[in-house]
Amino acid sequence: VGWGFVAPDGDRPYAGQGFTAPTLEAALTDLPEIRLNIDIKEGTEDGVQRVVDVVRKHEASHRVLLTSFHSRARDQLLELEYQGPTGLGKRDSLALVFYPELLLRNRFRPGDRAQLPPKAGLLNLGSAKFIAKAHRLGLKVDFWTINDEATAEALIRAGADGIMSDCPGELAERLTPLIGM
């Protein structure tokens, strides 16, 4: 934890300090009010099952969004009937970008979120038009990884529902008047 963090002065203050990542079990126990967004990386099928089992054990599905850009992992979440919010996998994200709304009606569950970069090649996924399309389909739209205030502000003004950042405290402090916190 923190090994790859580089401070603005080039220092790596957390490297070699003995910090370790908490287990999901510990995070759910120690932070009972915190909402989590967990990106399940590609791996074994039982990994998805284990994550779902821990979230269910803590009755935390209402506050844990499970996502994976790997479509198979998302398929498993649906097969396991995970009741919490989920992020779209690659297949559904591509469908959202390229298919007309008519073909996407009833494709997504309430609580689903598209979590995307604001740009993908020549595509502007951070446009108000794209975000409105997702909203009409019942999706929330989050963008990653946004570390500058101007981009975050433009996405919020376009209708973004969430911003993922390496410096959330700084952005939240500066954008609080815009988001009305």
Major β-sheet profile: 3 strands, parallel
Radius of gyration: 18 Å
What is the helix content? 40-55%
Between the first and last Cα atoms, what is the distance in angstroms?
29 Å
Largest beta sheet: strand ordering: 3-6-7
Beta-strand percentage? 5-15%
What is the overall pLDDT average?
92
Q: Classify the secondary structure makeup into a structural class.
A: alpha/beta
- Element string (H = helix, E = strand): HEHEHHHEEEHEHEH
> What is the number of helical segments per DSSP (H or I, 4+ residues)?
8
Principal-axes shape call: globular
How many strand elements?
A: 7
List the uncertain runs: none
Topology:
Blueprint: H1 24-30, E1 36-39, H2 45-57, E2 64-67, H3 71-79, H4 90-98, H5 101-104, E3 113-116, E4 119-120, E5 123-124, H6 128-136, E6 140-143, H7 149-158, E7 162-163, H8 168-179
Parallel strand pairs: 1-2, 3-6, 6-7
Antiparallel strand pairs: 4-5
Can you describe this structure?
- With 181 residues, the protein is an alpha/beta fold.
- The protein is built from eight helices and seven strands.
- The strands form three sheets. A three-stranded parallel β-sheet has the order 3-6-7, with helices on one face. Strands 1-2 form a two-stranded parallel sheet. A two-stranded antiparallel sheet has the order 4-5.
- Strand 1, helix 2 and strand 2 form a beta-alpha-beta unit.
- Helix 7 packs across helix 8.
- The two termini are 29 Å apart.
- The relative contact order is 0.09.
- The model has no long low-confidence stretch (mean pLDDT 92).
